[in-house]
Request: fold
Amino acid sequence: MSKNRENLSDEDLRKKMNYDQFIQEYKPTPFYKSKKFYLTLVALGAIFIGGYILLYEESGPGASGKQPLAAFIHPPLQGVDVLDSIYEIDPASDTVIGYLNGSSIHIPAQAFLDKQGKTVKGIVQLHYREFHDAVDFFLSGIPMTYDSAGKIFCFKSAGMLDISAFQYENQVFTNPAAPITVKLSSDVTEGRFNIYYLDTAQKKWEYINQDFVRPLMGDGQPAEAFSPFKTPIKASGIQPKFAIVFDKKQFPELATYDGVSFEVTADEKYYDPKLAMKEWDQVKLARHPDGIHYLVTFMNPGEEHVFKVQPVFSGVDYTRAMLLYDGKMKNYESMLAKNKEIADQKKRKLDSADASRNKKMRSVNSGMKTDMRFDADKETTSSLIFRLFTISRFGIWNSDCPKSLPQGKIISARFMDAKANPLEFDHVYLVEKGRKLMYSYYPDQFDKFSYNPASTNLLWAVTKDGKLAVFGPEEFEKIKADKDSSNFTMKLLERKISSVFEVKVLLGI
Reply:
């Protein structure tokens, strides 16, 4: 079954309506008595009903499904993409699926709804795939940029997934009463990542909540008992603070501690300490999109105030919180060390298998005049942790940390082939060695192309006729430091690429 069916064009959907002709044909006879009146009623009724059905079928129950992708997601190499794994699920019973890299999908009974909002009965096909490196992101055609207050950031991903479900080729939807959860295996162990959902109707990433690192047990299984926690911050003694009651299940990173207060940040100029003394119908706590702060909302009928805050501790509460934090960190580091030892053993076995496979693929590089191996270092040696996703809607989910474009040098970039013929690209992609991050540049950014000369850089793009074009680390080193423009002579791969693995071998990622 094809997930990327060809979409109808705007021209296919547009109806031609000649209003001038209608006015010219208008007669003094009252319109409500004419045949046109009745025909118009019939036509409008058909349009209304048809439009209602179309909107309902696209949104499904609670608008809980994938929207049409159109050209928003556009894999750059025809026929080469990260493939789905397809599983047959009996929705009447709980199911746990083990993905090939150690991730797991937990599907409770009655997890699927049809477009009428009724529980699905009978076998359901679940489609699932993951993306973990720059080549995966590139080939998927999924945009990896994020707009925050008009500034564009590139996503550094700790892992991305695409999940959907069908019955007899009809899309089914998630059931809010029985949410699916995914424990995504990740080799990025650092924190400060957030969970995002790709809204394909609005064509942008939607912030969901803060992500937390969950370590694996020594046997490689997720540590269910692990509770995320934040580093305690001592109250400034300058900024106003207050205490509120919050749901500890919703905020497990704070539930570990006693005596937590919320300090208003210095940039909140309109906070009045009297507000904390007032009685409110509702006081809500939410995570701030930056993944560090929180938002507190005070609500009464006709009155609402929202303030950015951070959790803090004072006096003996801070001392106790630090002792608790230090103990948890020691246990956490010990667990990671144990996992690393086990994972390194597994990695040595995998490396041996990969060496044999790479030997067979080495001939692929024969089309290049120089060796294009990039050998992008992994940030960690293997999967030590997992990221938890609660699937409230089918579609594309990501654990990400927004990053600015690289700094160091800005030049006007002109792209050409070996014969100095200009090349036109819709995008170019830049990767720095040792960073799990792909930077995307659009044509309006080519004249102010930024990169870090201190890093080992690899750049590639796809030509209009579908050929892979590469500019390697050795070419970057030849760019003169005192120049504000440069010709990027791209090496074109003439042969047809047929697989994701082939691209990874070519780029060394």
